[in-house]
């Protein structure tokens, strides 16, 4: 993803997440992140933003340290979150995508700043969805549209990131076994395949934003087939099995 666009997307998504950090919302539970409140969600995302900024300045064979914890006081979280987001946006906008840096991609993948541009767009957008969904569930705002909560091409890149980066990492770390078959995920902006196999055993078609929510566990296949936002061709049993593992952290 081009760095200028990535920086602009992170700035926009972080701004929308920041707008959700209203005093009455900080203690609201987040359905997409069990055990977290909206304040906890912002602490996590703000810590990841700072960690990513440190990674951009770390050599490929170095280590950026641990994710920084946020302030314990909920009331201090909004300003702390905004500060970290602003610093990350500046770092992304001022860094060449080819600049070498530490990443958690596979050893054979390029260790460059482009990795963090892509990762932080999807990290920030997904957690903005989480915050807005939490406020909606609490009756504090309207619900985001599962089929159009982010641009289709951005979501399609997020689906590709799960297939190319996140799922392989989950397998490398022993968090989930290698998938025994292949599942095709097709939208108007492209097609990605998770798992392995010469031919997919099933294919899901629909909006890329909905597919991305499914892969990150923010919705279910039952719900999306029933809504008509996704359509399935091939084996439902195989699709359920392939989606049942820990595809993402």
From TrEMBL:
Domain MDMPI C-terminal: 153-239
A single MF term (Gene Ontology): isomerase activity
InterPro entries, per the entry: DinB/YfiT-like, Maleyloyr_isom, MDMPI_C-term_domain, MDMPI_metal-binding, SCP2_sterol-bd_dom_sf
Gene3D superfamilies: dinb family like domain
GO cellular component: plasma membrane
Isomerase found in the keyword field: yes
Residue ranges of coiled coil: none
SUPFAM superfamilies: DinB/YfiT-like putative metalloenzymes, SCP-like
Ranges where the Mycothiol-dependent maleylpyruvate isomerase metal-binding domain occurs: 11-131
Keywords: Isomerase, Pyruvate
Name of the featured protein: Maleylpyruvate isomerase family mycothiol-dependent enzyme
Organism: Quadrisphaera setariae
């Amino acid at each position: 993803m081009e760095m200028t666009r990535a920086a602009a997307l992170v700035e926009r998504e972080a701004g929308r997440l920041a707008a959700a950090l209203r005093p009455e919302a900080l203690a609201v539970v987040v359905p997409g992140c069990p055990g977290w409140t909206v304040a906890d969600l912002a602490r996590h995302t703000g810590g990841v933003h700072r960690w990513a900024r440190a990674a951009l300045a770390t050599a490929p064979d170095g280590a950026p340290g641990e994710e920084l914890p946020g302030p314990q006081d909920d009331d201090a979280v909004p300003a702390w979150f905004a500060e970290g987001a602003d610093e990350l946006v500046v770092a992304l906008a001022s860094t060449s995508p080819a600049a070498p840096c530490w990443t958690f991609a596979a050893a054979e993948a390029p260790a460059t700043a482009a990795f963090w541009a892509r990762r932080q767009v999807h990290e920030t957008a997904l957690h903005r969805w989480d915050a807005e969904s939490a406020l909606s569930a609490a009756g504090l705002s309207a619900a985001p549209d599962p089929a159009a909560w982010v641009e289709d091409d951005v979501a399609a890149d997020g689906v590709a990131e799960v297939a190319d980066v996140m799922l392989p990492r989950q397998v490398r770390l022993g968090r989930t076994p290698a998938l025994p078959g292949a599942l095709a995920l097709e939208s108007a902006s492209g097609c990605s395949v998770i798992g392995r196999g010469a031919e997919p055993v099933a294919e899901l078609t629909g909006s890329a934003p909905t597919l991305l929510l499914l892969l990150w566990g923010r919705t279910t296949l039952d719900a999306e087939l029933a809504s008509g936002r996704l359509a399935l061709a091939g084996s439902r049993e195989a699709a359920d099995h392939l989606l049942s593992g820990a595809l993402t952290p």
